[in-house]
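Go through this fold for my students:
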Amino acid sequence: QGQLAESGGGLVQPGDSLRLLCKVSGRSFSSNAMAWFRRAPGKERDFVAGISGDGYTSYGDSVKGRFTISRDDTKNTIDLQMNSLKSEDTALYYCAAYSQGRNLWTRAEMYDYWGQGTQVTVSS
């Protein structure tokens, strides 16, 4: 069994930066795709960024150029560096893993491991 635990969320002002961390325990996902999703109040869970088992990255349109996903397989962590934060980035952010292979998916239903989420609030 594997567990994902997010951290690093908080309350920041527009234009600030945050770095989210997803710590993997119980097993390794070093060969698997992993991703960050977010859910804003009253909205669907949206794809934010993902990294395939081969290191290919993809980003949601609203965060391109501002967010960067990276993985450190020696530490079993996935990071999400978020710069130039906007109020519309306010959401509960989730880390997810696709245990069935290396392919990166943007659909949440493809991921079978999820963390509990970390709240990011961007407000002045």
